[in-house]
């Protein structure tokens, strides 16, 4: 029983890492459409669906932002 709870908690933690484009845009303070235009203009191809952490990092780098735990730090 305890093993099932641990597996469920790990799955929940993993799901928290993946984000939608809307969630990431909200964190950056821009619209989803602006995010899409910026990605298209920069020719960065991101797979459809939820954004994996590595894809989120690519997008944040494009905006000159690093994610440190729960805080955003500008790098430019």
Main traits of this protein?
single chain, 76 residues, mainly alpha, two-stranded antiparallel sheet, 4 helices, 2 strands, 58% helix
Molecular structure report:
The chain has helices spanning 2-17, 21-28, 32-41, 53-62, and strands spanning 65-68, 71-74. By secondary structure, the protein is mainly α. It has one domain. A two-stranded antiparallel ribbon has the order 1-2. Helix 2 crosses helix 3 (32-41). The protein is globular. 7% of the residues are buried.
Low-confidence stretches: none
Query: What percent of residues are in strands?
Result: 5-15%
Biggest beta-sheet profile: 2 strands, antiparallel
Total tally of structural domains: 1
Question: How large, in whole angstroms, is the Cα Rg?
Answer: 15 Å
How many beta-strand segments? Answer: 2
Mean pLDDT: 80
Tell me the helix content: 55-70%
Cα distance, first to last residue? 49 Å
**Count of helical segments?**
4
Q: Name the shape in a single word.
A: globular
The sequence of SSEs as H and E is HHHHEE
Strand order of the largest sheet: 1-2
Would you tell me the structural class of the helices and strands? mainly alpha
